[in-house]
Structures are given as C-alpha cells and as structure tokens.
Amino acid sequence: IEWAPNKRYQSREIKLMEKILPYAYKVSFGNEAMLRYEQSILTYDFRHKSFVSPDPSPSDKLYYRSRVKRKTIVLTFLGAFHGNRKPDKLFKAIEILSQKGYDCCLKIYDENRLGASCPNFVSYVGRTNDVRQALLDSDILVDVEGCDSVPVFISSKLKDYLCCCRPILAILVKDGPSYNLVNNLLTVSICSDNEEIIADRIIEIYKKEYSETMYKERIPVIEQFNPINIAKRIIDEISK
Questions:
Q1: How far apart are CA 24 and CA 38, in angstroms?
Q2: How confident is the model over 2-20, as pLDDT tens digits?
Q3: Which among 21, 31, 67, 172 has most CB atoms closer than 10 A?
Q4: Rounded CA gap, 197 and 97, in Å?
Q5: Geometric angle at alpha carbon 50, from 28 and 45, rounded to 5°
C-alpha cells in the first residue's frame, strides 16, 4: 500500500488480477515474500501453479580493484530517493560523522527528485553508463530500503553492489526479502534506519580491511540471479 495508497486504484488492480489469474497456466513472482503477499490480498488461490523467478543480476561474476586509501570516505548510492525511500537518516548520520571530524562524501547517481536543499557533503551526479567504475571509485556502497509495512521487494541496486568487491552498508527492513538475501554475508553490514547506528557502521566498515578473498562469499548469492540459471528454472517449470 505504500507504493499505491489510493484505495480505488488498489481495488481496481485486485479485481483485474482475480479475472486474469484463473486463466494462467503458471504465475511467477520475483521472490517468495511477493508471492505470499499477493495471495493474501486475493480470494483466488493460485499457489499451486506459482513459482519464484527473480530478476537477473547485471553480472554473474565479481569484479575487483584495490581500494585507494584517502582522507575522504566516499559513499555511493546508485539510484533515486523517492516515495517512502528517504535519505534523511543517512544525511543525519554523515552530519554526526562530520561533527566528529570525519570527512565524508555521499555521491547519489540520480537527479535530485525530491527537490530539497542538500548538505554540502551530498552530490547528485546524475546517471552513468559506467556503473562498474562508479562503484569501484567508492569506499562504501549504500542501499536504503523503503519503510514498507510488508516488504516484498529485493533491491535491484543491491544486486549491482554484490558483484562489486566493495563493502556494502544496507539499511534494510528486518526479515524482508533483501534482508534475508544478505543477512549472512560478512561483507554486507545491515542496520536499521537510525542515524546513530548508521554513523557507527560507516566508521566500522571504513576501518575494516577487506581482502579480495572475503568477497567470494557472495558468489552463491550472485549465482541465484545468473540469467542462465533463471532461464533454466523457467524452462523446468514450463516443462512440468
């Protein structure tokens, strides 16, 4: 409902799916949480013909370059802040670090859609065609999840980040699909949307040494989103 709060629109979409789904031989969803949520708002039971088919990752391999030691901590957010995905607590966390004497820079690869004035440590740098270079030029990759009451999305930028051998700060809703995807990874630091906690995690990540070998823990996760593996699962489902 956070993405479509208009009740009339919700009702129209639900009625439409109640008509369409009985005719489908198969129904696919990006993840299990999405499937469960859709079933909870529909009367027609489609679980017996449903399966999970995630969106693919942009790469099926890790890529690495040694991190350059510098005075400024460069944080990167790949994408847009809009709707209930807000940067307020992240901005406050960086302000806290500035007051403690840390020099931080947050690069946001999008336009300023919110139109709000930004602190001087924030740069909206627009879109880029060279995502790998943008991520490798960073010290920490930041993901901020929208505060949905029932989280059903896996962040597409998180899939971008996982392929890049840089530490990730993931501000996620606990037990949501994104959280469950990366919860056991040592190269991903998960925290709640709280400025003090975010500030502490940024320093913790920045001071930690990450070797290329450490990022190999991400390979099984990346393989879940390999287009070849996804296509094989779809073919297997159609063949049943």
A1: 15
A2: 878 899 999 999 999 999 9
A3: 172
A4: 11
A5: 125
